[in-house]
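Propose amino acids for all 365 sites.
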C-alpha cells in the first residue's frame, strides 16, 4: 500500500497545489465518514493493530494520533479512526470564524520531506465546530478513540483578551471532546507565541480551569523554538494549573541549510516548517521535558514522525503518545498501521511488557 501511494497517488496529489490536494484528501475522507460500509472497508484496509495505553485518565487503542491542523473543521471525525489512528486532535479552532491568511499558504519541500505552512487558523469558529461535533455524536459513528480539540486565539482578539477568547471556545466545546490543547505556539498568528510567557499562559489556564467542572484534561502545545529555560518556566505552571500534559512540538520558524536553489526558494516562504527536518529538535524537547519532570507529566511527541523508528525515538525519549501530520502527507494512509506494527515489534524485541514501560527508557539515568 505504501508503494501504491508513493508511485501513483502521491505523484497525482503532488502535481496540485498543496492546500488543494489537502482539501481533496480530507473531503474524500469526509464523504467516506458518512457511509458505514465505506468506513468499514477503510478500516479493513488501514486499521492498525492494538497497542493499548492509558494516559491522563483516557484509554487509547494505540499511541499514534492525528496532529492538529489536518482536520480543522471536524469534517471527517470517524474517518481518522478508520485510518487506524489511536486518537484525533481536531482544530485549531478559534472563537471567531476566520479565513486565515491569503493563499498560497502551504508549500511542500519535497526533497527534504517537509512542509511550510502559514494557514493562520482558517476555521469555521468554535460554535460551528461544536454543531459539527454534536452532529457526529448523533450520527452514531462517533469513533471509539479519544478526541481532542486544539484551541487557538482569534486573530482579531488582542493579546490581553486572549484568556477570554480561549475560554469562550472552551465553554461551547468542553462537553464535545475528551481533551483540549491550548495552542500558544503557532507561528502564523501575529504575536501568538508571546502567550507562551508564563504570566500570560497562567491567565489562560486559570480561565479554562474555572470552567472545567468535569476535569477534562487540558494540555499545552509548545514551539520547538523555545529555549529550555522558557520551557522550564511553562513547567512551573503544571502543578498549580493542573496541566494534564505537554504537546511537543508545533512547527518551527527555523530552516535547514541547503545549497539547493529550489529548496532555498521554498524555505524563504514565511511560516512554520514541519516534517523530517523538525524531527530531531522536537525529540530533543521531548527528552528535556521528560527529564525535567522526572517522567511525571505526560508528553505527546510530534514532529517529523514518518515510521516506527521515528515514533520509537520520541517514545523512548519520553513521549507517552505521538502524533503525525506531515508523515501522512508523504507516506499516505498506510502510515498508522505501519507505525503501530513496528512499535509492537520493538516492544517485543526490547522485552518491554507494555508501552508505558518503554516511555522515557532512553532518558532515565
Ligand atoms: C498545514 C498545517 C496546519 C497546521 N495547523 C495546526 C493547528 O491549527 N494547530 C496546531 O497546534 N498545530 C498545527 N499544525 C502543526 C502540527 O500539528 C504539528 O505540530 C507539526 O506539523 C509537526 O508535526 P509533523 O512534522 O508530523 O507535521 C499544522 C501543521 C501543518 C503542516
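Proposal:
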Amino acid at each position: 500500500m505504501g508503494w501504491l501511494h508513493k508511485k501513483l497517488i502521491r505523484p497525482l496529489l503532488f502535481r496540485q497545489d498543496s492546500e488543494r490536494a489537502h482539501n481533496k484528501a480530507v473531503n474524500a475522507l469526509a464523504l467516506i465518514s458518512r457511509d458505514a460500509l465505506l468506513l468499514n472497508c477503510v478500516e479493513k484496509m488501514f486499521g492498525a493493530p492494538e497497542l493499548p495505553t492509558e494516559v491522563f485518565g483516557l484509554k487509547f487503542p494505540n499511541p499514534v494520533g492525528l496532529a492538529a491542523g489536518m482536520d480543522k473543521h471536524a469534517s471527517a471525525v470517524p474517518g481518522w479512526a478508520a485510518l487506524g489512528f489511536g486518537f484525533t486532535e481536531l482544530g485549531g479552532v478559534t472563537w471567531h470564524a476566520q479565513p486565515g491568511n491569503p493563499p498560497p499558504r502551504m508549500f511542500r519541500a519535497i526533497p527534504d520531506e517537509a512542509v511550510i505552512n502559514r494557514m493562520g487558523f482558517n476555521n469555521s469558529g468554535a460554535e460551528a465546530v461544536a454543531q459539527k461535533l454534536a452532529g457526529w455524536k448523533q450520527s452514531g459513528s462517533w469513533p471509539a478513540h479519544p478526541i481532542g480539540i486544539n484551541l487557538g486565539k482569534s486573530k482579531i482578539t488582542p493579546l490581553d483578551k486572549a484568556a477570554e477568547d480561549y475560554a469562550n471556545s472552551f465553554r461551547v466545546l468542553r462537553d464535545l471532546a475528551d481533551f483540549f490543547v491550548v495552542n500558544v505556539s503557532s507561528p502564523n498568528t501575529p504575536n501568538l507565541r508571546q502567550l507562551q510567557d508564563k504570566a500570560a499562559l497562567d491567565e489562560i489556564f486559570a480561565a479554562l480551569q474555572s470552567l472545567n467542572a468535569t476535569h477534562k484534561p487540558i494540555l499545552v502545545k509548545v514551539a520547538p523554538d523555545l529555549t529550555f529555560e522558557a520551557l522550564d518556566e511553562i513547567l512551573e505552571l503544571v502543578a498549580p494549573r493542573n496541566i494534564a500534559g505537554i504537546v511537543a512540538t508545533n512547527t518551527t520558524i527555523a530552516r535547514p541549510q541547503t545549497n539547493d536553489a529550489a529548496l532555498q526558494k521554498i524555505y524563504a516562504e514565511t511560516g512554520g516548517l514541519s516534517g523530517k527536518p523538525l524531527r530531531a529538535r522536537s525529540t530533543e524537547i521531548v527528552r528535556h521535558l521528560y527529564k525535567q519532570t522526572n517522567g511525571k507529566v505526560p508528553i505527546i511527541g510530534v514532529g517529523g514522525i514518518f515510521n516506527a523508528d521515528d515514533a520509537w525515538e520520541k517514545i523512548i525519549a519520553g513521549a507517552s503518545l505521538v502524533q503525525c501530520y506531515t508523515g501522512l502527507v508523504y507516506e499516505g494512509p498506510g502510515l498508522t498501521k505501519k507505525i503501530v506494527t513496528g512499535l509492537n515489534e520493538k516492544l517485543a524485541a526490547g522485552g518491554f511488557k507494555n508501552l508505558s514501560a518503554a516511555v522515557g527508557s532512553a532518558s532515565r539515568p
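The CA atoms of residues 95 and 169 lie 5 Å apart. The chain has a mean pLDDT of 97.
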